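Researcher: Re-running this chain for the archive, since the previous output was lost when a drive failed. Same request as before.
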Amino acid sequence: MRWDGQGVSVDDGALPGLQRIGFVRSVRTPQFEGVTFHEVLCKSALNKMPNAAMLPFRYTVNAYRGCSHACRYCFARPTHEYLDLDCGNDFDTQVIVKTNVAEVLRRELHRPSWQRETVALGTNTDPYQRAEGRYALMPGIIGALADSGTPFSILTKGTLLRRDLPVITGAARQVDVSVAVSLAVGDPELHKDVEPGTPSPQARLGLISAVRDAGLDCHVMVAPVLPLLTDSVEHLDALLGQIADAGATGVTAFGLHLRGSTRGWFMAWLARSHPELVGQYRELYRRGAYLPMRYRHTLHDRVTPLIAKHGLAPDRRSFRTTDAPAAGTAEALQPTLF
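Model: Regenerated structure tokens:
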């Protein structure tokens, strides 16, 4: 039969790593040239962060793994290695899609044990990357969170968020909602090289204005700041001025982390595009994934007066727990690998 090749049981050469997470099929379409979508049926949607993560929230939802934004510095790149895929081109072009994530999330949020803690969207890979234009998973996720009384935050570089502004503003009438846009590179040429799959800086400034016009606060993550590339007073001053003019309500800025295999991928890009900086980067990161404390203090002292100059507030977003019924029998939530 002509449908036999679409069966779940057919051996289509999928990697074992994908089979482990509920693989259904792989899809390639002309509209997304060079990108393969691997559709899976997830068993869990809520990821519980380990205590050691030291984050202001404990739960996340990630509808996608891998990201066509292709940011050279993305800290989530090593997570693809759990799927027997590489952290480089595979991460950029082999995108895992949890097609049933909204339905699974809705079930989990209705467990008696759920305490309605803030859920963060966009902490691993971008929920509004290009794949969202095809699969439209976010409206279902947002609806499930709002209907259960669960506050949530969104972090994105994707202008596709504009599509869901009516859904997000509706949810904000039911629960606490935080929207943040990531914008750390103001130079158009550097942006094309270091974040080749993302909307332009101007497009993201327009997104900030659209979020504000919808009546929502909009925080901006000026992160990661790239040493010797985007950390000058001139670059930061110009970028923060544009962010303020777009109507942003607050800003967070911090320097680049290079954890795991992301380090090698980023350094290979740096050697191609800015070979004169390779030695200085090796010195900066010689002790590990994080910038030395002296650099972090210097960046803080540089950015803080610029944030004040442009009338932007520091990070005051709330990641609180909403009042909830007393917990019933505890039910285990799948801990995140990341």
